[in-house]
Amino acid sequence: MKIKDIQVYVNCPDRNFVTVRIETDNGLYGLGDATLNGRELAVVAYLVEHIKPCLIGKDAHQIEDIWQYLYKGAYWRRGPITITAISGIDMALWDLKGKAAGLPVYQLLGGKSRTKMKVYGHANGNTIAETLDNLGKLIGQGYEAVRLQCAIPGLSSTYGILKGEKDYFELQRNRPLPPEQAWDTNKYLNFIPELFRQARSKYGEEIELLHDVHSRLSPIEAGRLGKALEPYHLLFLEDAVTAENQANYRLLRQTTVTPLAVGETFNSIWDAKELIETQSIDYLRAAATHAGGITAMRRMADFAALYKVRTAPHGPPDISPIGHAAHAHLNSWAPNFGIQEFVGFGGAQMTAVFRHPLRFEEGYLHLNDSPGLGVDFVVEEAEKYPYKRSYLPVSRLGDGTLWDW
Ligand code: KDG
Ligand code: MG
């Protein structure tokens, strides 16, 4: 099964996605997601200019060797552009191997550890009342776990709150340059515990609750928040602090028993090594699209399992249905799967372009038994939606200081 051609598509069906399509000489094709939100074209160039010429004629079954070849062969290891490009290739090769074998990818990984995957949804709002109404709607749809984000009173904008835009992409798209958002640690820390107090008092203890800090706090500030949230029993607090310095989490861990999750921006097992070994986190949020594909995610899951760390793959709208399908196969297999973030299947344009193998029912995702990853990519549909440049927002304090977004 030799690689005959590699096509890279960048399209905007509702939002931008980079799709890798590898064709083999036995008439099969495999699909991978290489979407890096806000920096899409850098990955496209890496794939087309640097990776494609190296892979034509190679045996598509040699997934591990190709992964090592692209990782070690670049000499410049790691980094989001390189690893997102490798991730797209890796997913497409697993898709091909599954199609060639007539088996879904989870079977190649070792079979199913579960029949369905628990997900958490998002309830956002401009006020606590609105956030809790949205939480009630998700509980009504069967969700057993929900992330709560609420606009901070006195701030003009807050992460996760759309303020009239149709979705996150429109929030980015409607501005020619990165949108600027405001941040105030004191206002935030004084407000968030009240959101969770009211959520518990309205809906009780049964529903599992989560929150994403989006890396805005120092370890000690994060410790204050974690402690204040302890009475409300979160499933996890995400990205309480940045993890470039993994020791941040060792410090945070000493201050609170609120479970901790981190990893959506990780592009290597090395980003998580110390966090896992020191048991400083409870959930690893790495994504197949940004952390090295199925090959790397499998390795991370096995390593995390040794330390009782569970997987909770990143599931935002800026990962394509191919990336979500890769997670579904990993989640079906991983003995230490924890929970999957899930924000729906996207709009009409997206569902016309990507045909996916997932079904949502009563708080869980179900994966069908199609060979490979089970996703199809309709090129003629995709080509109706050209790429549109967009940027993620940046954050600033009131005095103009640039902050973590
Ligand atoms: O592209 C950035 C988003 O994927 C990110 O902001 C979403 O933090 C996120 C989450 O937890 O889904
Ligand atoms: Mg997050």
Structural account:
37% of the residues lie in helices and 18% in strands. The chain has helices at 40-55, 63-73, 80-101, 105-109, 128-140, 168-173, 185-203, 219-229, 247-253, 273-277, 293-305, 321-333, 348-353, 379-382, and strands at 3-11, 17-24, 29-33, 117-125, 145-150, 180-182, 208-212, 236-238, 260-262, 283-284, 310-311, 340-341, 354-355, 358-361, 364-367, 376-377, 394-396, 402-403. The longest helix is centred in the first third of the chain and has 22 residues, at 80-101. By secondary structure, the chain is of the alpha/beta class. The chain has two domains: 3-104, Enolase-like, domain 1 (2-Layer Sandwich); 109-372, TIM Barrel. The strands form four sheets. Strands 4, 5, 7, 8, 9, 10, 11, 12, 14 and 15 form a ten-stranded mixed β-sheet that branches. It has a three-stranded antiparallel β-sheet with strand order 1-2-3. The chain binds 2-keto-3-deoxygluconate and magnesium ion. Residues 37, 212, 214, 264, 314, 316, 318, 341, 392 line the site of 2-keto-3-deoxygluconate.
Radius of gyration: 21 Å
The major pleated sheet works out as: 10 strands, mixed
Specify the CATH homologous superfamily of the largest domain.
Answer: Enolase-like C-terminal domain
- The CATH class of the largest domain, by name, is Alpha Beta
Overall structural class, as computed from helix and strand content, comes to alpha/beta
Number of strands: 18
Bound molecules: 2-keto-3-deoxygluconate, magnesium ion
Q: How many domains, as an integer? A: 2
CATH fold label of the largest domain: TIM Barrel
Distance between the termini: 44 Å
- The residue ranges in which pLDDT falls below 50 over 5 or more consecutive positions are none
